[in-house]
UniProtKB/TrEMBL annotation:
Pfam families: V-set (PF07686). Keywords: Membrane, Signal, Transmembrane, Transmembrane helix. The keyword Nucleus does not apply. InterPro entries: Ig-like_dom (IPR007110), Ig-like_dom_sf (IPR036179), Ig-like_fold (IPR013783), Ig_sub (IPR003599), Ig_V-set (IPR013106). The keyword Transmembrane helix applies. This is Ig-like domain-containing protein. Residues 1-21 form the signal peptide. The chain crosses the membrane at residues 139-162. Residues 27-130 form the Ig-like domain. Gene3D superfamilies: Immunoglobulins (2.60.40.10). It comes from Dreissena polymorpha.
Length: 181
């Protein structure tokens, strides 16, 4: 047997091994859940973390509001020290990679971004705050009204058929009586 095959296998093994090892070393950020939908007043909680796991680095992860260049924690620090009127930011919290939004409002909908401290890694999460569309109830009302109208129509239709038959029978009876006379 030629010695080439084992050599090939060995080199293949080494190449695969090193690429797999490189993939393993490439850290990523991931967020769970990657998207969330809530109704106003509910709480949102998104957990951002390093993959592979790095609990120590997770502590320094920062969440950003949609289209914001300042991390939530910095805006919060600003609010509590400068005492601006932007106290809505206090509904948000970003600690240890976990973004929490309390008392969600419709305007909280958007794409939130989690970044590591030197901004080399980031991951996005979609938050959707929605109210149950009122047209669902409107459609139900329309359907109910239509059902009533259909019932009324059918009722009238059968009523007229029954009356018609009764009338015809009465006429036939009268005609028979007439013939007898
Ligand atoms: C802090 O608040 C001031 C005034 O509202 C604002 O100009 C500044 O950009 C804020 N800084 C941060 C980090 O949000
Ligand atoms: C911030 O402003 C509120 C009123 O807007 C006031 O009650 C509170 O004492 C202020 N806090 C500080 C630290 O200045
Ligand atoms: C940070 O979060 C992770 C998982 O979410 C948890 O295991 C860890 O104990 C937390 N660390 C701190 C200091 O809160
Ligand atoms: C939640 O937010 C609404 C307005 O968006 C406000 O009227 C209500 O008082 C808030 N509730 C709490 C518990 O903060």
């Amino acid at each position: 047997m030629s010695p080439i095959l084992p050599l090939l296998l060995l080199s293949l093994y080494l190449t695969l091994g090193t690429t797999l090892a490189q993939d393993d070393e490439e850290p990523l950020l991931r967020v769970l859940p990657p998207a969330i939908a809530v109704t106003p007043g509910e709480e949102v909680s998104l957990v951002c973390s390093h993959y592979p796991e790095d609990l120590e680095a997770d502590l320094e992860l920062q969440w950003y509001l949609p289209n914001s260049e300042e991390p939530i924690s910095a805006q919060e620090f600003n609010e509590t020290t400068v005492n601006t009127t932007q106290d809505d930011i206090l509904r948000f919290s970003s600690e240890n990679g976990t973004l929490t939004i309390t008392n969600a409002s419709l305007s909280d909908s958007g794409t939130y971004v989690c970044r590591n401290v030197d901004r080399t890694l980031e991951v996005e999460a979609e938050v959707k705050v929605y109210v149950m569309p009122s047209y669902v109830t409107e459609i139900m009302v329309v359907l109910a009204i239509n059902a009533v109208l259909v019932l009324v129509f059918l009722g009238c239709y059968f009523w007229s058929i029954i009356n018609d038959r009764r009338y015809k029978k009465q006429q036939q009876a009268r005609e028979k009586l007439g013939h007898k006379r």
